[in-house]
Amino acid sequence: MTTISYWEQQGFGRADWVVIGAGLVGLQSARRIKEIFSDARVVVLDQHALGNAASLRNAGFACFGSAGEMLDEIERTSESDAVGLYEKRYLGIQKLLGRYGAARIGFQATGGTEVFSDCDAEEAVRVFDHLNGLNAMLRAVHGKESFELCDTSAAGMNVLKTGVLSPLEGGLQSHLLYKAVREDALHAGVEIYEGMRVLHWEESSDAIRLHMASGLVVECSRLLICTNGFSKRLIPDLPVSPARGQVFVTKSLGVLPFEGIFHADKGYIYFRELGGDRILIGGGRNLDFAGEETMEMEVTHQFRDYLKSYLESVVLPGRVIEFDYEWSGVMGMNENRNPIIGWHSDRVCLAVRMGGMGVALSSWVADKVIAVIEKDLGV
Ligand SMILES: Cc1cc2nc3c(=O)[nH]c(=O)nc-3n(C[C@H](O)[C@H](O)[C@H](O)COP(=O)(O)OP(=O)(O)OC[C@H]3O[C@@H](n4cnc5c(N)ncnc54)[C@H](O)[C@@H]3O)c2cc1C
Question: For residues 341 and 4, what is the distance between their CA atoms, to the nearest angstrom?
Answer without folding.
Answer: 34
